[in-house]
Write a structure and sequence with these properties.
Elements lengths: L1 H42 L2 H7 E11 L8 E5 L1 H12 L4 H4 L3 E11 L2 E10 L4 E12 L2 E13 L3 H4 L8
Length: about 170
């Protein structure tokens, strides 16, 4: 009987460890979505967008802060999201033109096959920062972004005066 109890306890602990490993794996995969998305923005690699977004994904880019930039764009579908990014940063050329988005402080909340991610963003070229809010879903092909929202504020509004897609307030 003691051997059976020991076996049952070992089995319960093993199952618990597997569940924790699955959770950690899912959290990592969700965090990789925003990491890969920002890499796609910086390299203008459309294939990356197709790997991280659902085809019918939505995005909302918002200027925030006391002296907010004129930014309140809602987009639907990978094509619209990618076109908006290209229009906004496609004029930058070469190493010095790369936006170099940095993301950190990832917080992931899992709820079955759905996840919420919050992460800080800093863009070295724009002297801008913000917070990404992501709703993701687990598909047969892995985790994908269903909705992305960026609340961005800038500390260098002069950059935006020459941006081809927006004017400053």
């Amino acid at each position: 009987m003691k051997a059976l109890n020991t076996f049952i306890i070992a089995l319960i602990l093993a199952c618990s460890s597997l569940a924790q490993a699955d959770t950690a794996s899912d959290q990592f995969e969700v965090m990789q979505l925003i990491n890969r998305y920002t890499w796609g923005v910086d390299t203008l690699d459309k294939a990356v967008f197709e790997e991280v977004f659902l085809p019918d994904a939505t995005a909302h880019y918002i200027g925030v802060g006391a002296d907010a930039i004129d930014l309140d764009d809602r987009l639907e579908g990978i094509g619209a999201i990618y076109a908006w990014i290209v229009k906004g940063v496609g004029h930058r050329k070469g190493h010095d033109g790369l936006p170099w988005h940095f993301v950190s402080n990832h917080i992931v909340t899992l709820n079955g096959d759905q996840a919420k991610l919050t992460a800080y963003m800093h863009n070295r070229v724009l002297a801008a920062g913000g917070v990404y809010y992501v709703d993701a879903v687990k598909t047969p092909d892995g985790w994908r972004i269903k909705h992305l929202k960026l609340e961005e504020q800038t500390w260098n509004k002069d950059y935006y005066k020459n941006a081809p897609h927006k004017n400053v307030n």
